[in-house]
Write a structure and sequence with these properties.
It is a single chain. This protein is of the alpha/beta class and 346 residues long. It has helices at 12-22, 38-45, 57-68, 71-85, 94-102, 108-123, 128-144, 190-193, 213-216, 218-225, 251-264, 282-290, 306-310; strands at residues 28-31, 49-54, 184-187, 201-204, 231-232, 237-238, 270-275, 294-303, 327-336. The strands form 2 sheets. A 7-stranded mixed β-sheet has the order 3-2-1-4-7-9-8. Strands 5-6 form a two-stranded antiparallel ribbon. A hairpin with a 4-residue loop joins strand 5 and strand 6 (237-238). Helix 4 packs across helix 7 (128-144). The two termini are 24 Å apart. 42% of the residues are buried.
């Protein structure tokens, strides 16, 4: 899966362990801020019926491939499409100019391949799930040859070694369908759709500070939408990054927004993932969640994301600041009617 700040890759065992502690017999789990769909993918792999939601198009595409699409239905057809795309000759255009020449996220040789493949996908009449699988394959192939520190706010001053490697399409790690029923992926604003959510457990992993996922991963949004937006700044961010704002990226906005979601989702169980660098404190979250039931907290000490560990860089990839603290604390707030036996944090 793609490199992603806030990814729960290192915390999957903690998250899925907490879910199994609450739902030992399985059930429907709704992940309302799905991001890379890593959590939903893991839960589907453990037999849960999963509903993944996110408001960004690239995240919805990831969830459609990794949560909604079933391997037995799509794997062979997807591989056939990928085989065709591998033969498409490179073609430089808007994408290559914008993200390889002006902003150096990819080497132009790979940029032209990405562009040609994406143009061909646009001409294919693919069913939504198949289209999502193919787009995820292209997104992940591009991610493996990018020239960033993991965020699309800046790029390396010199090409990263991986950026000089040839682009390679691979079939995403699709999972078979689960006996409990069809999994699904939706695209919606969490605050707006919270009242429509009904599940055995709702997992919330909201943005927790000023960093916008759309701004950090704007290239993936443009690659998926293929709308050739107006761009701005050294990183050539989409112009709608300026207007598509989330209350969760605002210190005054996150409390009311999260409170609204917590109050309106229909579920007997909640798990909320947060971080000690967030706008809300542990005490505030315990107080907020206490109205829903008994709150238990798992604390996990983790290294900070790679960008924090290598120091502060400007948009040209030049180091302009010192490394800050190297570790933070991840929280899992588990809310149930009665206390449950939770896995011990490592």
């Amino acid at each position: 899966m793609i490199k992603y700040i806030g990814s729960k890759r290192a915390l999957l065992g903690h998250v899925t362990g907490a879910v199994r502690s609450v739902l030992p017999e399985g059930g429907l789990v709704c992940d309302l801020f799905s991001g890379t769909a890593r959590v939903g993918h893991a839960l589907k792999g453990q037999g849960f019926r999963v509903w993944s939601n996110d408001h960004n198009a690239y995240a919805h595409t990831l969830a459609t491939a990794y949560v909604q699409a079933d391997r037995e239905r799509w794997a062979d057809r997807a591989e056939a499409v990928l085989s065709e795309l591998r033969t498409v000759p490179p073609q430089a255009g808007w994408f290559t100019r914008t993200f390889c020449d002006e902003a150096r996220f990819f080497h132009p040789d790979n940029g032209a391949k990405i562009e040609a493949m994406r143009e061909r996908i646009e001409t294919m009449d693919l069913e939504p799930e198949l289209r999502a699988i193919v787009l995820v394959s292209l997104m992940e192939a591009a991610d493996r040859v990018d020239s960033t520190a993991g965020l699309q706010m800046a790029y390396m001053k010199a090409w990263a070694p991986r950026a000089l490697k040839p682009l390679e399409l691979r079939l995403p790690d699709l999972l078979p369908g689960v006996a409990a029923g069809r999994c699904r992926a939706t695209q919606g604003d969490a605050v707006e759709i919270a009242g429509q959510v009904e599940a055995d457990l709702v997992y919330l992993d909201p943005p927790y500070n000023q960093h916008s996922y759309l701004a950090n991963y704007h290239v993936w949004e443009s690659l998926v939408l293929w709308d050739r937006p107006e761009t701005y700044g050294v990183a050539n961010k989409r112009i709608d990054v300026k207007t598509r704002k989330s209350a969760f990226n605002s210190r005054p906005g996150i409390g009311p927004a999260l409170q609204s979601v917590i109050e309106r989702v229909k579920t007997p169980n909640l798990i909320v993932s947060f971080n000690d660098e967030g706008y809300l404190s542990r005490e505030q979250l315990v107080s907020m969640l206490g109205a829903r039931g008994h709150v238990q907290v798992i604390e996990i000490a983790r290294p900070r994301y790679v960008g924090a560990r290598i120091g502060i860089h400007n948009l040209k990839g030049e180091k302009v600041g010192a490394v800050g603290r190297l570790r933070n604390v991840e929280y899992l707030f588990v809310v149930t009617d009665q206390p449950v036996r939770l896995p011990v944090a490592a």
